[in-house]
Amino acid sequence: MTGELRRRVAVALAAAVVLGFLGVFFAWPVAAIIGLGVRGDVGAVLAEPATWRLVGFTLGQAAASTAVALLCGLPLAYVLARLVLPGTGLLRVAVTVPFVLPTIVVGMAFRALFGAEGGVLPIVLANAFFNVAVVARTVSGLWGHLDRRMEDAARSLGAGRLRTFTSVTLPALLPALGSAAAVVFLFSATSFGVVLVLGGGRLRTLETEIYLRTVQLLDLPGAAALSLLQLVAVVAALLVATIARRRRETALRLRAPATTARPPQGAEWWIVGLAGAVLCGLLAPIASLLVRSVSTRDGWGLAGYRALLGTGQPGTLEVTGLEAALNSVRTAVDATWMALLLGLLASFVLVAVRRRFVAESLDLALMLPLGVSAVTVGFGYLITLGSLPGELRTSPLLVPFAQALVVTPLVIRTVLPVLRAIDDRLRQAAATLGAGPWRVRREIDFPLAVRSVLAAAGFGFVVALGEFGATSFLARPDAPTLPVAIARLLGRPGELNSQLAYAACALLMVVTVLGVVLIERLRVGTDAVEDF
């Protein structure tokens, strides 16, 4: 067998594994939802005024959240891309933490800040809080590559700072801004934990309505029809993000690498102050959550943390809070190694495929699980996987499978840019000396990409740890993850349940922060959120 034939066989096998997993655990469940929605009375659901009120609120709060995230993210992006300041690494950690916090934790943090009644404003601010990192790191990734000489030339011709920004810098940043806006809008429109906690049962999006109709009303055709409607909107937003990202990559190729950072000068200190104010705004909900976790009716205390050893009020949980935390760790570990395996195989295929159209189509297919609602995927599992042998629908592996779907695109986005940056002549030289495709990857690619692989593993672990949308459908009552246990605690009255829920949120948050710190120490110049 020739070297080229071996390479093609290896690529085909890797692609078969990845696409097979994607087909069984993503395409099939989503297709089942589409089929159920089409077979049901979609017209009746679409004719209901309540449906379009849901659509209006979903799109409206997503648009408002996107606008707030853009306004807050731009000063942070400028500081990260253009200024040399002490503590920039800590700033990156602080900006990234909200994005990887579990949505249920973000909801609880804003509930502690605004009160249990919730409302539109807390939902919008919580979604913006969650997505500021997407704007800051996506835009800073391009802003750092823009040559300052264009701005200096405009200033020398008499343009003020504002005109220079609007006429020179802003047009160059539009691809990154468009990509970030599309992704933030997508995440906000499919936000589940935030709306579930802060909606107060009165405010619902398509995502939470699908959950309500499935779990409480048992209206599967109606839920499927809403899932179909949401799926159309999600795919449209994902396509916009893909087109914007391609334009951003073209812009990066046309400009010099990032050598533009410098100490703040003059009016730039105002931008530093504005970024500091945004950072304080990001820290306020987190601080409120920590304070609430040690607050009791009798003053300060650790009753909530001690309650982690129990099950809350009688009849609330079937396991202790500590057992739920261990369940979260076990499922996150399983999801992480599955996602690493699939993500590395997929990255290998994307690097090896030489036809651009095929590579881009495969890349879009691999990103779809990140854009499609996790609630829709979990709902699809309930419909389809029960027909497989071995009672897979009740298997403890089902939750890691669902979480791996969410984590795999993040692994690809972290590892793929590094693999593509490796000089292909090194691979060709190794192949000339007789190394097969797998040995080339092991001897050449892996040593150069090992830090990004470890960063992807850490990032994937913290994301899987807090995944709530699909897990809320799939976790068994006797084996809930910590986010699912928190949601159940919130749904039952009692001071002990509330204290336990806030203590569990604080525990999740601490683990997430530690994970992000580790990721930043392993960072190799490629931001995981930068290429969504």
UniProtKB/TrEMBL annotation:
Cross-referenced Pfam families: BPD_transp_1
Family matches, as InterPro entries: MetI-like, MetI-like_sf
Keywords: Cell inner membrane, Cell membrane, Membrane, Transmembrane, Transmembrane helix, Transport
Entries under CDD domains matching the protein: TM_PBP2 (cd06261)
Transmembrane helix in keyword set: yes
Regions crossing the membrane: 12-38, 58-81, 93-114, 120-146, 167-200, 220-244, 269-291, 335-353, 365-385, 397-419, 448-466, 500-519
Topological type in the membrane: Multi-pass membrane protein
Compartments where located: Cell inner membrane; Cell membrane
Span of domain ABC transmembrane type-1: 55-241, 325-520
Family according to the record: Belongs to the binding-protein-dependent transport system permease family.
UniProt name for this protein: Iron ABC transporter permease
